[in-house]
Amino acid sequence: MTGNREELRELRRMCAASLAGEKKRILVCAGTGCISSGSLEIYDELKKIMEARGLNVAVELREEPHGRSVGLKKSGCHGFCEMGPLVRIDPQGWLYVKVGVEDCEEIVEKTIIGGEPIARLAYTKEGQSFSRQDDIPFYRKQTRRVLEHCGHIDATSINEYLAIGGYQALERALFEMTAEEIVEMIEQSGLRGRGGGGFPTGRKWSQVKRQKAAQKYIVCNGDEGDPGAFMDRSIMEGDPHRMLEGMMIAGIACGARNGYVYVRAEYPIAVSRLRAAIAQAEEIGLLGDDILGSGFSFHLHINRGAGAFVCGEGSALTASIEGRRGMPRVKPPRTVEHGLFDSPTVLNNVETFANVPLIIERGVAWFRSLGPEKSPGTKAFALTGNIENTGLIEVPMGTTLRDVVFEVGGGMRGGADFKAVQIGGPSGGCLTAGDLDLPLDFDSLAAAGAMIGSGGLVVMDNRTCMVEVARFFMNFTQNESCGKCVPCRGGTKQMLAILERIVAGEGRAGDIDLLLELADMISHTALCGLGKTAALPVVSTVKKFRGEYEAHINKKYCPVGACSKLKSFEIDPALCKGCSKCARGCPVKAIVGKIKEPFAIDKEKCVKCGACVAACPFHAVKEV
Fold first, then answer.
1. Could you identify which of 45, 183, 459, 607 might form a hypothetical disulfide with 387, taking C-beta atoms 3.0 to 4.6 angstroms apart as the criterion?
2. What's the rounded Cα separation, in Å, for the pair 465 and 456?
3. Residues 6+ positions from 412 with CB-CB distance below 8 Å
């Protein structure tokens, strides 16, 4: 327990000395992605081999230096999920990709004992090998601020966070700044909420601060429900203390004594590490009553969500914490006036809170040195889809879509052509090749009819059917509608039914106009932001790919051949040798003919499974 500021500083000094005593560090990625591909088995194997060889292995950072050792740690997500499991070797900064348990012996022998990199485990691109992580194009093109510690420290250790300067911003907020100065600094920084809407964080804090209520709350929205998004999860898993530190500073600024982290139950690793981080902070006196003798008290609690997408909406989230069904309510009053337990509440997401310690510690000018005037700082994106490098990235606000897709993401997979990006998940819109030079910031995207949302970027190539994409997102939204308001509950159901008809080849004249009419009605009358934006993927795909809708409806034809119910197969009689292999492979006996004569497909019976295409040795079966 540290009872005052001096004791905390002494603890930080000892932790830094202990960290410096580790002559080498092996950081095994223990993010969700790498764990699923076996990284924990790699960690166990490395530990077993090093202990068997008598190497001094340190798996924890102790307060007192205990001689030179090799630090073996489980880190948070490195972000390069495509290449996992990942192992980083410090101080050289070498990154090994696609590591297997069978590689551990060589890592210990050649790298830890011999001090040499293993070329075959390095990332390679177009014949060029990159041993150091910072040299890999995927990382070199990024600016990692919020994610700077993810993959570089033991994600489960408060001592490592202290060793690299953690909780210095909290110290400053407690002992060197007034609440007014903190709020003013956040306002001047121009930090906007990273959860989707981009509302100015400092303005929100000042609105809560000026409320006269006896009880106020700080709530962190970790309910990341967008398909393909995992930015907040990676921060909670990889650097939980930074987010908690941001919440504590918000508590000081706004006069709150309690905070809640609302995190989805589908993130068990994040929940576990947050719980451990809170317990560690309480143990050394950074959470609880009279923190460091400052007179400020703050307590943190965790609430696990049950997986309802609507609980990412502010009023639904607070209702869920209170034990009620997570459904949005009519506003005003806003959350800053009547939020959790009817008290003034600061509600920000994980990435927003993780930015706060950086601003307090490094200053407004530093924060504003990146990004446009009205959207300063950086933004983390989850990059997924038909792209070479999928994973978690962080770039300055205002970086163009082209740089994200082709520089950081490495371009389209398999040499395909770029077609579109769905940005912002089911509440977002669609950007096309014509938008590649669009800066990714709040205002530019809003002007283009899209939104950053939580930061999901789903990249699609020219083999993607945009009508099917719209159907997929509408199906998600319709399933996740809480059902409280009729426009969302009934309107999205009608839109989904129309889209399902269109991709099944049963579209009717007037369907496009009806979709747009319903979209307009829902966006103007739905109760909450989720309903109001539910139709955006449909509207943007109609606007930019109307020809694909018309082909499905008028010609019963999918231009990219992706819609299975619109597929059709024919046998070219000029190529068919009458071998009957296609007929023997057909599961529904839809192919008829005589040996040594051209066969034919009965389209009434055909289920369009494509088995005949694979069976024909003469490439006589064609998809039309």
1. 459
2. 19
3. 386, 387, 388, 405, 418, 459, 461
Q: Please give the Cα distance from 550 to 559 (Å, whole number).
A: 10
Q: Lowest-confidence range among 63-67, 390-394, 591-595? A: 63-67
Which domains are seen in the chain, by residue range?
5-158 (3.40.30.10), 166-369 (3.40.50.11540), 378-461 (3.10.20.600), 466-555 (1.20.1440.230), 567-623 (3.30.70.20)
Strands 258-264 and 299-305, by their bridges, are parallel
- How would DSSP label each residue in 290-316? SGGGSS--BEEEEEEE-S-GGGGSHHH
- Please state, in angstroms and rounded to a whole number, the distance separating the CA atoms of residues 231 and 229: 6
Picking from 89, 97, 139, 134, the residue whose alpha carbon sits closest to that of residue 116 is 89
Indicate left, alpha or beta for 458 from its phi (over 0: left) and psi (-120 to 50: alpha).
Answer: beta
Q: Is the peptide bond before 332 cis (omega within 30 degrees of 0)?
A: yes
Q: Which residues pair with 305 in a beta bridge?
A: 264
Indicate the helix (H) or strand (E) that contains 548: helix 546-554
The vertex-485 CA angle with 481 and 486, nearest 5°, equals 95
Smallest Cα–Cα separation from 480: which of 493, 499, 498?
493
Rg (Cα) of the chain, in Å, rounded? Answer: 27
Closest by CA to 465, choosing from 386, 395, 520, 406, is 386
Question: How many Å apart are CA 403 and CA 379, to the nearest integer?
Answer: 14
pTM for the structure as a whole: 0.91
Q: With CA atoms as reference, report the closest residue to 155 among 249, 100, 78, 68.
A: 78
Strands 69-75 and 57-58: parallel
- 3-class SS of residue 124: strand
pLDDT digits (tens, 9 = 90+) for 430-484: 999 999 999 999 999 988 888 888 789 999 999 999 999 999 999 999 999 999 9
Confidence of residue 229 (pLDDT cuts 50, 70, 90): confident
Tokens of 286: 């950074």
Both tokens of 261, joined, read: 């982290």
Q: Which helix (H) or strand (E) holds 281?
A: helix 268-283
Report how far residue 340's alpha carbon sits from residue 320's, in angstroms, rounded to the nearest whole number: 10
Are the C-beta atoms of 222 and 267 separated by less than 8 Å?
yes
Query: E-strand spans in 255-377?
Result: 258-264, 299-305, 345-349
Cβ atoms 101, 38 nearer than 8 A: yes
| Residue 320, CB-side half-sphere exposure with 13 Å CA sphere | 29
Length of the chain: 624
Q: Taking 70 as the threshold, does the pLDDT of residue 66 lie above it?
A: no
- Which tokens hold the place of 37? 């591909």
> Between the CA of residue 268 and those of 35, 146, 233, 271, 539, what are the distances in Å?
12, 22, 10, 5, 36
Give the sign of the dihedral formed by CA 144, CA 145, CA 151, CA 152. positive
